[in-house]
Amino acid sequence: MPCEPPRCAACSARSEGLCGTFSGGEITALFAIARQRRAPAGQVLLWAGEPASFCATLVTGVLKIARQDAEGREQIVGLLFPGDFVGEPFAGACVDSVVALSDADLCVYPRAPLEHLLEAHPPATRLLLRRALSTLTAARRWILTLGRRNARQKVASFLLEMATRSTQGDRLELPLSRGAMGEALGLTIETVSRQMTALVRAQVIELAGHRGVRLLNRAQLATLATL
Amino acid sequence: MPCEPPRCAACSARSEGLCGTFSGGEITALFAIARQRRAPAGQVLLWAGEPASFCATLVTGVLKIARQDAEGREQIVGLLFPGDFVGEPFAGACVDSVVALSDADLCVYPRAPLEHLLEAHPPATRLLLRRALSTLTAARRWILTLGRRNARQKVASFLLEMATRSTQGDRLELPLSRGAMGEALGLTIETVSRQMTALVRAQVIELAGHRGVRLLNRAQLATLATL
DNA sequence: CGTAGTGTTGAAGTTGCTCAATCTTTGTGG
DNA sequence: CCACAAAGATTGAGCAACTTCAACACTACG
Questions:
Q1: What Rg do the C-alpha atoms of chain B give, in angstroms?
Q2: B189: which of A64, A91, B36, B45 is 20 to 30 A away, CA to CA?
Q3: Which DSSP string corresponds to A67-98?
């Protein structure tokens, strides 16, 4: 059995996402078309309207998927975390822009060879289908939040969503600024800020700098998210 | 070559969706596991929380995919039209309910045999992936509408979206009541109604009964949807 | 230690929601 | 075929929530 490339063996996303469907021997084929890429915070990886030249596995960092209004106002329609698959195979031009919110490491696959590889390796296509369906479910959860919840509930929901992605104990480091939270929640910066302050006053959270949040009462936060 | 079942040959959804990936000979395998089902308007096909026992191709009619708030308020997160694929293969329990908005005909596939068939027929899995990705794109367009547009723009967007699905000339028959439109747009019945009236007064549309709409000025409607 | 970028707070203005009454449409039974 | 009932839609008035505009405070980084 051919041996697994050392870089893959050491990769923190090795068992996640696309890579997880390739065995130690098979991964060589994926590795052969992959290229490492490091993106600083703020860098645009894919531009809406441009042809989608590559897909990738996100190794470290957080990306936003955003769409622009006719007026230029931006709405965040998805976030990507380590292990997530970036881009759309089989798609034409990008509909959304993908931007790094923090410094990020990616394992990039050019579109054409990736699509060939998918044809040859059915489990990968099935995984992408399952991923797409679960992303769809998440997008619909977001639709529910945007359509039915008020500002308080939106902010509380968002904090809980972030908490499921990454917490160390009750400490949470937000990957987004207040402005970006507003873009995600369909609120203004000011409204997000006021709701955060209200949560602090209600002793549900505590702030530590602009990005740091300590969850003091998760049960209460969950109640506020829906009620 | 084995001949195509007459029911498939005569089916208006034959070239659409899942069926379209099966040739005249191959379709027999899909037909063998399929069962016809007719659902009257209002019938719940899949209940949120219940196990998802089947998938289907929608042949005629319109279905809504809806999700409930903790408070019981409903948000429509998707609509299904003839040719669309109903349900989620590889999923556990249903997250959303699926309800017939009009009388509907379906071609129903039990989950287990369908999943076997998908494994044996890779083009079908690829089609479902492409479909899932385009449904995701549509869901994200909806997120943009819910997050960034006011009531006027939401209603105008919705009418345009419906117009892309089915129009005869400038006549459009809405598959939803005002109440259901509100559930889809995150608005109340009253607000939807007021916006419709405003569009009539602006001579952009004309109403014919509760469900009938005539599009008098599509360009203007498109402007109102985004501006 | 200063400055630029972010975040917070306040006051006033708009938008969409709630509650309540009235009007249309549609479908059913006489 | 018409009358009537029930469901759905429209309209109005008052109110609450979110946005806008503007000033000020924090924090993080050079």
A1: 19
A2: B45
A3: EE-TTS-EEEEEEE-TT-EES-TT-SB-SSEE
